[in-house]
Design a protein that fits this description.
single chain; Rieske Iron-sulfur Protein; Naphthalene 1,2-dioxygenase Alpha Subunit, Chain A, domain 1; four-stranded antiparallel beta sheet
Length: about 375
Amino acid sequence: MDAREGLWMSIKADFTQGFARNHWYAAAWAAEIGEHPFARQILGEPVVLFRLPGGGVAALEDRCPHRLAPLSMGECADGGLRCGYHGMVFDGQGQCIGIPGQDVIPPTARARAFPVAERYGLIWLWVGDGPADEGRLPRIRGHGEQGWAVLDQGYQHHRANYRIEIENLMDPAHTTFLHKETIGNQAARNIPVQVAQSDYGLKAYRWIENVPPTPLDQKSRDFGDSRVDRQVAFHFELPATSFVDIAVIPAGMERTDENLMNGGLRTFSYKFLTPETHRSTHFFWLHLRNYRQADTHFDAGLRASLEKTFQEDNVMASAIQIEQERTGLRQRTGIAIDRAPVMALRMIDRMISQEAAVSGVRQDA
């Protein structure tokens, strides 16, 4: 990277870096948590999620404190989560509330509990030691509001470090070449990307003017032979939320807020990236649109198109992960489109450093 352009950062491979822990991460869709325990690894931690008798969700370390048997191999019973090995029962705070064959419960009979929140149909987990602040949960524009159709329950398992995923999602330039059949547009290939930063994230954006609609735009609305102006804004919010704001309007239309919302197509495409390990990521996605609402046939086609797009990202990110592991490097040179991805990673690095300074513990891969 060229330090003179403010793009420099470590070229060490992404999987050698740490995690920001004192934040909310998507752990599962609420619909996934039913009458049986649900196991998932989050930031390298084995976690079990389960329903409480009142319907709420709890999350514990997926290890019984007795013999370390995975609690996810047990069952929801007796007012809590019952270990499948010796029948010890734990409540939503991780406290053992029953041991078969004895009345005395040792004070050490306790599993670590993680703060949990349920919002937007997702279960969110706070993995760090700091106080869990629900005010820091992501906010999704348009969700639950009239005039917006929602596609949710999106999930893919990606075989790459979450930082590689963030770099990809903050890089508008790759869509032209990697996603030719869905969101790509050859007309955008030489249009520079602008970047704006805030205290909590950044966006990389550009207007692509007087161009044919993309294949996905044509499926969303019949533009005929008309040309369009297309705004694509890639947003990043710390520590691992991405959303793409796409506005497509007839070429030359005035870019007022009203026209951007109602003059054509408007889409908010959210991705919540939760590190599983240093080499893999839980990729949750949710999509909102202001067009073709209550159209189940269109929903099915759109979901298939999005799944295809994100799977293309998965294939590329996984290949990059393999090469990073072979070389120990993140990259060997830098180009102009790296600006937004590098800024995002540097924000994460600062956050990790601040957490380490407070806790006095350095994160190592």
